[in-house]
Design goal:
It contains 8 helices and 7 strands, in the order αβββββββααααααα. The protein is α+β, with helices and mostly antiparallel strands. Strands 2-3-7-5-4 form a 5-stranded mixed β-barrel.
């Protein structure tokens, strides 16, 4: 909205959204169209001066409705009647829960999803009725490109979520392994009177913890590196530098969305394993981490979608320039590591 919205939208909604009085959502998925956004059927009929009647259904809308803020502003993709088929006919709209006159917009809560994890956030099925009022954001038929600017940032956020949850699971497992006594060293199994030792001293538990540590630190480093490229892409001094880091950001975004989430599933499972039977109970947090992280390879584009994006678009982006820049960054890192005695053998 800040980049593409009209002055009216910016003046009306930006400040209260930024200070937390209002909240925004992303309304993309429909019952018959998930990853295939070209198949959405929600419609928009113009009333004049950028105002439209919006009609359609959206599903899996996080924070789609609740009582903890004054208004909810839905960023909604749909088709203006007569628009081209496919993704070229998608426009973006801002639809407030409450209109300027204080009346509630024609948005109905069809239902709330009872989820495996992340239960602190309501996920809604919303129906935008025949009297629903919305306002176009930007130009007609350019909505998907606008939405993807936000989605690319959200994908970095999801990668960060995967890194955060798996890190929390690892830290919980590490603490438990230091405190939980069980059995004796393998070479002292026969010494029944010897005291039990913390499970962190058992080789298999140490293996689980070390693999978690490597994965979570690698995932976090990837997120930080991508966030750095984001900052440089937007705030470097020269156009050449901004273009360079934008290409690096483009090629790393699907990787950053995927790796911390997919590896996080494994590491969080391993963290639960360290708790033994207790990990399967609500007495310890491992089970919640395991439930909460399961969504991360799914939303904001599944792992398969990220793979298609990486190989189908990003590797060949700018005639392979993005891939070349990433290879250059990797080679520079290896070269620098060689100059450090302690890192040389790993480089």
């Amino acid at each position: 909205m800040a980049h593409f919205g009209s002055d009216y939208l910016k003046n009306k909604y930006l400040e209260p959204m930024l200070n937390g009085r209002f909240q925004g959502t992303m309304c993309l998925t429909e019952p018959q169209a998930g990853s295939s956004l070209s198949d959405i059927i929600s419609t928009a009929e113009p009333l004049g001066e950028g105002t439209f009647i919006i009609n359609g259904q959206k599903i899996f809308i996080s924070c789609g409705d609740h009582n903890y803020c004054e208004n909810v502003i839905h960023l909604f993709i749909g088709r203006i009647k007569g628009a081209p088929a496919g993704t070229k006919g998608i426009s973006l709209f801002a639809i407030p829960k409450y209109l300027d006159n204080g009346q509630r917009n024609d948005i109905n809560n069809v239902g709330i999803y009872h989820k495996l994890g992340q239960r602190g956030v309501p996920a809604m099925h919303l129906e935008f009725g025949e009297k629903c009022i919305g306002y176009i954001v930007g130009e007609e038929n350019k909505g998907l490109s606008y939405m993807f600017q936000m989605m690319n940032e959200a994908r970095i956020g999801v990668g960060s979520t995967g890194a955060a949850i798996s890190t929390a699971a690892y830290q919980a497992a590490l603490q438990y392994a230091k405190e939980r006594p069980q059995s004796r060293r393998l070479n002292k199994k026969a010494e029944i009177n010897a005291p039990q030792i913390p499970i962190i001293q058992h080789p298999d538990v140490r293996r689980l913890l070390f693999s978690q540590k490597a994965a979570v630190e690698g995932g976090l480093s990837l997120v930080i590196q991508t966030a750095k490229y984001y900052d440089l892409a937007h705030h470097s001094e020269t156009e050449e530098e901004r273009e360079k880091y934008l290409l690096l950001l483009e090629i790393l975004t699907p990787i950053t969305k995927t790796y911390p989430c997919e590896s996080g599933l494994k590491t969080t499972s391993d963290a639960l394993q360290c708790f033994g039977g207790y990990g399967f109970t609500e007495d310890f947090p491992a089970e919640q981490y395991y439930r909460d992280i399961r969504i991360t390879p799914i939303y904001e584009g599944t792992t398969a979608i990220q793979s298609q994006d990486l190989l189908g678009r990003k590797v060949s982006l700018a005639n392979g320039k993005a891939m070349g820049l990433l290879s250059g960054e990797i080679i520079d890192c290896i070269t620098e590591a060689i100059s450090h005695e302690k890192l040389r053998k790993y480089a």
